[in-house]
Specification:
This protein has about 375 residues and is an alpha/beta fold. The protein has one domain (about 65-365): TIM Barrel, CATH 3.20.20. Helices cover about 40% and strands about 15% of the residues. The chain contains 16 helices and eleven strands. An eight-stranded parallel β-barrel has the order 1-3-4-5-7-8-9-10, surrounded by four helices. Strands 2-6 form a two-stranded antiparallel ribbon. Helix 8 links the parallel strand 4 (about 155-160) and strand 5. Helix 4 runs antiparallel to helix 13 and helix 5 packs across helix 13 (about 275-290). It is globular and about 60 Å long. The structure holds iron/sulfur cluster. Iron/sulfur cluster binds near residues 89, 92, 94, 95 and 199.
Protein backbone atom coordinates (compact mmCIF):
# COMPACT_ATOMS: atom_id res chain seq x y z
CA UNK A 1 0.00 0.00 0.00
CA UNK A 2 1.26 3.48 -0.91
CA UNK A 3 2.25 5.67 2.04
CA UNK A 4 3.82 9.07 2.61
CA UNK A 5 7.23 7.37 2.56
CA UNK A 6 6.66 6.42 -1.10
CA UNK A 7 5.26 9.89 -1.82
CA UNK A 8 8.34 11.79 -0.63
CA UNK A 9 10.86 9.75 -2.60
CA UNK A 10 10.37 12.25 -5.43
CA UNK A 11 11.69 15.11 -3.26
CA UNK A 12 15.24 15.94 -2.29
CA UNK A 13 16.06 17.65 1.02
CA UNK A 14 18.79 19.77 -0.60
CA UNK A 15 16.64 20.82 -3.55
CA UNK A 16 13.82 21.95 -1.27
CA UNK A 17 16.35 23.93 0.79
CA UNK A 18 17.69 25.58 -2.38
CA UNK A 19 14.19 26.35 -3.65
CA UNK A 20 13.41 28.15 -0.40
CA UNK A 21 16.65 30.16 -0.45
CA UNK A 22 16.04 31.20 -4.07
CA UNK A 23 12.57 32.62 -3.45
CA UNK A 24 12.36 36.37 -4.10
CA UNK A 25 10.13 39.24 -3.00
CA UNK A 26 8.23 38.77 -6.25
CA UNK A 27 7.46 35.16 -5.31
CA UNK A 28 6.22 36.28 -1.88
CA UNK A 29 4.01 39.00 -3.42
CA UNK A 30 2.68 36.48 -5.93
CA UNK A 31 1.82 34.07 -3.09
CA UNK A 32 0.08 36.80 -1.12
CA UNK A 33 -1.99 37.82 -4.16
CA UNK A 34 -3.62 34.36 -4.39
CA UNK A 35 -6.73 33.14 -2.64
CA UNK A 36 -5.39 29.59 -2.30
CA UNK A 37 -1.67 28.95 -2.14
CA UNK A 38 0.32 25.83 -3.05
CA UNK A 39 3.54 24.37 -1.66
CA UNK A 40 5.72 26.60 -3.88
CA UNK A 41 3.94 29.65 -2.43
CA UNK A 42 4.40 28.23 1.09
CA UNK A 43 8.15 28.01 0.43
CA UNK A 44 8.14 31.69 -0.58
CA UNK A 45 6.21 32.75 2.54
CA UNK A 46 8.64 31.03 4.92
CA UNK A 47 11.74 32.04 2.96
CA UNK A 48 14.20 34.74 4.03
CA UNK A 49 12.54 36.92 1.35
CA UNK A 50 9.21 36.49 3.18
CA UNK A 51 10.55 38.14 6.35
CA UNK A 52 9.80 41.62 4.99
CA UNK A 53 6.11 40.71 4.54
CA UNK A 54 5.37 39.60 8.06
CA UNK A 55 2.83 42.35 8.68
CA UNK A 56 0.76 41.42 5.58
CA UNK A 57 1.05 37.72 6.41
CA UNK A 58 -0.07 38.28 9.99
CA UNK A 59 -3.11 40.32 8.90
CA UNK A 60 -4.14 37.67 6.38
CA UNK A 61 -3.61 34.89 8.91
CA UNK A 62 -5.68 36.72 11.54
CA UNK A 63 -8.60 37.18 9.14
CA UNK A 64 -8.53 33.55 7.97
CA UNK A 65 -8.34 32.25 11.53
CA UNK A 66 -11.27 34.39 12.66
CA UNK A 67 -13.36 33.36 9.64
CA UNK A 68 -12.91 29.65 10.36
CA UNK A 69 -12.59 29.51 14.18
CA UNK A 70 -14.15 32.78 15.41
CA UNK A 71 -12.50 34.63 18.29
CA UNK A 72 -11.77 31.48 20.24
CA UNK A 73 -8.85 29.63 21.77
CA UNK A 74 -9.09 26.00 22.78
CA UNK A 75 -7.23 24.99 25.94
CA UNK A 76 -5.77 21.56 26.63
CA UNK A 77 -3.52 20.03 29.21
CA UNK A 78 -0.93 17.24 28.95
CA UNK A 79 -1.16 14.39 31.46
CA UNK A 80 2.23 12.65 31.67
CA UNK A 81 1.62 8.95 32.27
CA UNK A 82 5.17 7.61 32.22
CA UNK A 83 8.73 8.75 31.67
CA UNK A 84 10.12 5.28 30.91
CA UNK A 85 11.64 5.27 27.45
CA UNK A 86 13.65 2.71 25.50
CA UNK A 87 14.85 5.18 22.87
CA UNK A 88 17.95 7.32 22.76
CA UNK A 89 16.92 10.69 21.31
CA UNK A 90 19.88 12.89 22.04
CA UNK A 91 17.77 16.02 22.63
CA UNK A 92 15.37 14.63 25.26
CA UNK A 93 15.50 14.40 29.04
CA UNK A 94 13.57 11.08 29.06
CA UNK A 95 16.28 9.42 26.89
CA UNK A 96 17.00 5.96 28.40
CA UNK A 97 20.68 6.82 28.87
CA UNK A 98 19.81 9.70 31.20
CA UNK A 99 20.05 8.71 34.81
CA UNK A 100 16.74 10.11 36.02
CA UNK A 101 14.10 8.73 38.33
CA UNK A 102 11.54 6.79 36.29
CA UNK A 103 7.85 6.54 36.99
CA UNK A 104 4.71 5.16 35.43
CA UNK A 105 1.36 6.12 36.90
CA UNK A 106 -0.82 3.34 38.28
CA UNK A 107 -4.53 3.59 37.56
CA UNK A 108 -4.98 4.89 41.11
CA UNK A 109 -2.46 7.66 40.37
CA UNK A 110 -4.17 8.42 37.04
CA UNK A 111 -7.37 8.93 39.05
CA UNK A 112 -5.59 11.37 41.38
CA UNK A 113 -4.18 13.31 38.42
CA UNK A 114 -7.60 13.30 36.79
CA UNK A 115 -9.22 14.78 39.90
CA UNK A 116 -6.56 17.52 40.11
CA UNK A 117 -6.99 18.32 36.40
CA UNK A 118 -10.80 18.33 36.50
CA UNK A 119 -10.65 21.00 39.20
CA UNK A 120 -8.82 23.22 36.69
CA UNK A 121 -11.80 23.00 34.30
CA UNK A 122 -10.24 21.07 31.42
CA UNK A 123 -12.30 18.83 29.13
CA UNK A 124 -9.55 18.15 26.59
CA UNK A 125 -6.66 16.06 27.78
CA UNK A 126 -3.45 14.95 26.05
CA UNK A 127 -1.98 11.70 27.42
CA UNK A 128 1.82 11.71 27.09
CA UNK A 129 4.38 8.97 27.73
CA UNK A 130 7.93 8.09 26.83
CA UNK A 131 8.23 5.26 24.33
CA UNK A 132 8.64 2.04 26.29
CA UNK A 133 6.24 -0.67 25.21
CA UNK A 134 7.19 -2.99 28.09
CA UNK A 135 6.16 -0.38 30.66
CA UNK A 136 3.34 1.35 28.78
CA UNK A 137 1.89 -0.65 25.91
CA UNK A 138 -1.49 -0.70 24.23
CA UNK A 139 -3.11 -2.62 27.12
CA UNK A 140 -2.07 0.08 29.57
CA UNK A 141 -3.34 2.90 27.32
CA UNK A 142 -6.59 1.01 26.84
CA UNK A 143 -7.10 0.79 30.59
CA UNK A 144 -6.27 4.49 31.09
CA UNK A 145 -8.52 5.69 28.24
CA UNK A 146 -11.31 3.44 29.41
CA UNK A 147 -11.15 5.08 32.81
CA UNK A 148 -10.97 8.64 31.40
CA UNK A 149 -13.44 8.39 28.51
CA UNK A 150 -16.51 9.60 30.42
CA UNK A 151 -14.55 12.29 32.29
CA UNK A 152 -13.17 14.27 29.31
CA UNK A 153 -14.81 15.27 26.03
CA UNK A 154 -11.60 14.77 24.05
CA UNK A 155 -8.78 12.33 24.73
CA UNK A 156 -5.58 12.73 22.76
CA UNK A 157 -2.53 10.47 22.83
CA UNK A 158 1.13 11.40 22.36
CA UNK A 159 3.08 8.19 22.98
CA UNK A 160 5.04 5.69 20.87
CA UNK A 161 3.74 5.11 17.34
CA UNK A 162 1.42 2.10 17.22
CA UNK A 163 0.17 -0.29 14.57
CA UNK A 164 -3.14 0.51 12.82
CA UNK A 165 -4.92 -2.33 14.68
CA UNK A 166 -3.72 -0.94 18.02
CA UNK A 167 -5.03 2.54 17.16
CA UNK A 168 -8.35 1.00 16.13
CA UNK A 169 -8.49 -0.86 19.46
CA UNK A 170 -7.92 2.38 21.40
CA UNK A 171 -10.44 4.25 19.27
CA UNK A 172 -13.09 1.76 20.40
CA UNK A 173 -12.57 2.74 24.05
CA UNK A 174 -12.65 6.50 23.39
CA UNK A 175 -9.43 7.74 21.77
CA UNK A 176 -10.22 10.74 19.51
CA UNK A 177 -6.90 12.20 18.59
CA UNK A 178 -3.27 11.07 18.10
CA UNK A 179 -0.15 13.24 17.86
CA UNK A 180 3.07 11.84 16.41
CA UNK A 181 5.83 14.22 15.44
CA UNK A 182 8.47 13.25 12.93
CA UNK A 183 11.08 15.43 14.71
CA UNK A 184 13.00 15.80 11.41
CA UNK A 185 12.04 14.66 7.91
CA UNK A 186 15.70 14.52 6.88
CA UNK A 187 16.15 10.78 6.40
CA UNK A 188 19.93 11.11 6.10
CA UNK A 189 20.50 12.91 9.41
CA UNK A 190 17.57 11.39 11.35
CA UNK A 191 19.75 8.52 12.70
CA UNK A 192 22.23 10.89 14.32
CA UNK A 193 19.50 12.20 16.66
CA UNK A 194 17.78 8.85 17.23
CA UNK A 195 20.51 6.45 18.16
CA UNK A 196 18.64 3.49 19.56
CA UNK A 197 15.21 1.94 19.99
CA UNK A 198 12.11 1.73 17.80
CA UNK A 199 12.23 5.45 17.13
CA UNK A 200 15.44 5.02 15.15
CA UNK A 201 13.28 3.44 12.40
CA UNK A 202 12.62 6.57 10.30
CA UNK A 203 10.17 4.88 7.96
CA UNK A 204 8.00 3.30 10.66
CA UNK A 205 7.64 6.68 12.33
CA UNK A 206 6.98 8.51 9.07
CA UNK A 207 4.21 6.09 8.12
CA UNK A 208 2.41 6.54 11.45
CA UNK A 209 0.10 9.17 9.92
CA UNK A 210 -1.04 6.58 7.39
CA UNK A 211 -1.74 4.05 10.16
CA UNK A 212 -3.71 6.63 12.16
CA UNK A 213 -5.71 7.51 9.04
CA UNK A 214 -6.37 3.82 8.30
CA UNK A 215 -7.64 3.36 11.87
CA UNK A 216 -10.16 6.20 11.31
CA UNK A 217 -9.02 8.22 14.29
CA UNK A 218 -10.94 11.51 14.28
CA UNK A 219 -7.96 13.85 14.47
CA UNK A 220 -4.17 13.72 14.16
CA UNK A 221 -1.33 16.06 15.04
CA UNK A 222 1.83 16.52 12.97
CA UNK A 223 4.96 18.56 13.25
CA UNK A 224 8.72 18.59 13.46
CA UNK A 225 10.99 19.62 16.29
CA UNK A 226 12.16 23.10 15.35
CA UNK A 227 15.86 23.30 16.08
CA UNK A 228 17.12 19.90 14.95
CA UNK A 229 17.61 20.50 11.22
CA UNK A 230 17.00 23.48 8.94
CA UNK A 231 13.58 24.60 10.17
CA UNK A 232 12.41 25.90 6.79
CA UNK A 233 13.09 22.65 4.92
CA UNK A 234 11.56 20.55 7.70
CA UNK A 235 8.46 22.77 7.66
CA UNK A 236 8.02 22.28 3.90
CA UNK A 237 8.12 18.51 4.47
CA UNK A 238 5.57 18.93 7.26
CA UNK A 239 3.32 20.90 4.89
CA UNK A 240 3.73 18.19 2.22
CA UNK A 241 2.84 15.57 4.84
CA UNK A 242 -0.26 17.53 5.89
CA UNK A 243 -1.46 17.93 2.31
CA UNK A 244 -0.83 14.25 1.52
CA UNK A 245 -2.76 13.10 4.61
CA UNK A 246 -5.65 15.50 3.94
CA UNK A 247 -5.99 14.12 0.41
CA UNK A 248 -5.70 10.49 1.49
CA UNK A 249 -7.69 10.50 4.75
CA UNK A 250 -10.20 13.22 3.99
CA UNK A 251 -12.46 12.48 6.96
CA UNK A 252 -9.64 13.16 9.44
CA UNK A 253 -9.03 16.57 11.08
CA UNK A 254 -5.49 17.86 11.54
CA UNK A 255 -3.37 19.89 13.91
CA UNK A 256 0.05 21.36 13.29
CA UNK A 257 2.30 21.77 16.32
CA UNK A 258 5.40 23.96 16.22
CA UNK A 259 7.58 22.93 19.16
CA UNK A 260 10.90 24.76 19.48
CA UNK A 261 13.62 22.81 21.24
CA UNK A 262 13.81 23.64 24.94
CA UNK A 263 16.64 23.00 27.42
CA UNK A 264 16.37 19.52 28.93
CA UNK A 265 18.28 17.06 31.08
CA UNK A 266 20.04 15.88 27.88
CA UNK A 267 21.97 19.19 27.56
CA UNK A 268 21.39 19.19 23.75
CA UNK A 269 21.71 22.58 22.05
CA UNK A 270 19.57 23.42 18.97
CA UNK A 271 21.35 23.36 15.57
CA UNK A 272 18.97 25.63 13.72
CA UNK A 273 17.61 28.56 15.67
CA UNK A 274 14.20 29.87 14.70
CA UNK A 275 13.65 33.28 16.25
CA UNK A 276 10.33 34.73 17.43
CA UNK A 277 9.56 36.60 14.20
CA UNK A 278 10.42 33.59 12.08
CA UNK A 279 8.16 31.39 14.20
CA UNK A 280 5.31 33.82 13.60
CA UNK A 281 6.15 33.85 9.88
CA UNK A 282 5.83 30.06 9.92
CA UNK A 283 2.53 30.08 11.85
CA UNK A 284 1.05 32.58 9.38
CA UNK A 285 2.32 30.59 6.39
CA UNK A 286 0.62 27.40 7.69
CA UNK A 287 -2.62 29.34 8.23
CA UNK A 288 -2.53 30.83 4.72
CA UNK A 289 -1.76 27.39 3.25
CA UNK A 290 -4.52 25.73 5.24
CA UNK A 291 -7.29 27.87 6.78
CA UNK A 292 -8.89 24.75 8.33
CA UNK A 293 -5.93 23.34 10.23
CA UNK A 294 -5.74 23.61 14.02
CA UNK A 295 -2.46 25.28 15.07
CA UNK A 296 -1.24 24.41 18.54
CA UNK A 297 1.22 26.41 20.64
CA UNK A 298 2.43 24.94 23.90
CA UNK A 299 3.89 26.33 27.12
CA UNK A 300 7.36 25.83 25.61
CA UNK A 301 6.80 29.40 24.39
CA UNK A 302 7.04 32.37 26.72
CA UNK A 303 4.14 34.19 28.30
CA UNK A 304 4.91 37.39 26.38
CA UNK A 305 5.20 35.62 23.04
CA UNK A 306 1.98 33.65 23.47
CA UNK A 307 0.11 36.81 24.47
CA UNK A 308 1.40 38.66 21.39
CA UNK A 309 0.55 36.02 18.79
CA UNK A 310 -2.80 34.91 20.22
CA UNK A 311 -4.88 36.49 17.44
CA UNK A 312 -2.53 35.79 14.56
CA UNK A 313 -3.12 32.13 13.71
CA UNK A 314 -2.97 29.70 16.66
CA UNK A 315 -6.18 27.94 17.70
CA UNK A 316 -5.12 25.88 20.69
CA UNK A 317 -2.90 26.55 23.69
CA UNK A 318 -1.84 24.37 26.56
CA UNK A 319 -1.89 26.14 29.93
CA UNK A 320 -0.84 25.23 33.45
CA UNK A 321 1.16 22.29 32.01
CA UNK A 322 3.27 19.98 34.06
CA UNK A 323 5.68 17.62 32.23
CA UNK A 324 6.32 15.13 35.04
CA UNK A 325 4.23 11.99 35.69
CA UNK A 326 2.02 12.60 38.73
CA UNK A 327 2.92 16.30 38.82
CA UNK A 328 -0.59 17.76 39.10
CA UNK A 329 -1.54 15.89 42.25
CA UNK A 330 2.00 15.67 43.73
CA UNK A 331 4.40 18.18 42.12
CA UNK A 332 8.15 17.71 42.77
CA UNK A 333 9.74 18.90 39.44
CA UNK A 334 12.36 16.14 39.45
CA UNK A 335 10.88 14.07 36.64
CA UNK A 336 10.20 16.78 34.05
CA UNK A 337 10.70 16.04 30.33
CA UNK A 338 11.70 19.64 29.61
CA UNK A 339 11.45 23.00 31.32
CA UNK A 340 8.28 24.86 30.38
CA UNK A 341 8.47 28.56 29.58
CA UNK A 342 4.98 29.97 30.20
CA UNK A 343 4.36 28.86 33.77
CA UNK A 344 1.12 30.76 34.39
CA UNK A 345 -1.84 29.00 35.93
CA UNK A 346 -4.83 28.14 33.71
CA UNK A 347 -6.80 30.95 35.40
CA UNK A 348 -4.14 33.49 34.43
CA UNK A 349 -4.08 32.27 30.82
CA UNK A 350 -7.89 32.35 30.67
CA UNK A 351 -7.86 35.94 31.93
CA UNK A 352 -5.29 36.96 29.31
CA UNK A 353 -7.39 35.35 26.54
CA UNK A 354 -10.57 37.10 27.73
CA UNK A 355 -8.76 40.43 28.06
CA UNK A 356 -7.89 40.16 24.38
CA UNK A 357 -11.59 39.77 23.53
CA UNK A 358 -11.35 36.03 22.85
CA UNK A 359 -13.42 33.20 24.26
CA UNK A 360 -11.94 30.12 25.86
CA UNK A 361 -13.10 26.80 24.46
CA UNK A 362 -12.69 23.94 26.91
CA UNK A 363 -14.29 21.40 24.67
CA UNK A 364 -13.52 20.35 21.09
CA UNK A 365 -16.88 20.84 19.35
CA UNK A 366 -15.64 18.97 16.30
CA UNK A 367 -15.24 15.93 18.48
CA UNK A 368 -18.66 16.38 20.02
CA UNK A 369 -20.21 16.32 16.55
CA UNK A 370 -18.27 13.39 15.17
CA UNK A 371 -20.23 10.40 13.93
S1 LIG B 1 11.71 12.21 22.58
FE1 LIG B 1 10.25 10.65 23.17
S2 LIG B 1 11.12 8.77 22.36
FE2 LIG B 1 12.79 10.23 22.40
S3 LIG B 1 13.82 9.89 24.38
FE3 LIG B 1 12.25 11.49 24.65
S4 LIG B 1 10.45 10.44 25.38
FE4 LIG B 1 11.82 8.91 24.49
Amino acid sequence: MKTFYNEIQKYSWDEIGNDISNKTSKDVENALSKEHINIEDFKALISPAGKGYLEQMAQRSKILTEQRFGKTMQLFLPLYLSNYCSNVCIYCGFNCKNNIQRKKLSIKEVKEECEAIKKLGYKHILLVAGEAKVHAGVEYYEEVINYLQDKFSQIALEVQPLDAEEYARLQKVGLNYVCVYQETYNEKTYPKYHLKGRKSDYRYRLETGDRIGQANIHKMGLGCLLGLEDWRTDSVYTALHLKYLERTYWKTKFTIALPRLRPSESGFQPNSIINDKELLQLICAYRILDPEVDISISTRESQEYRDNILKLGPTSYSAGSCTEPGGYAHPNHELEQFAINDSRSPEEVVEMIKNQGYEVVWKDWDSAMQE
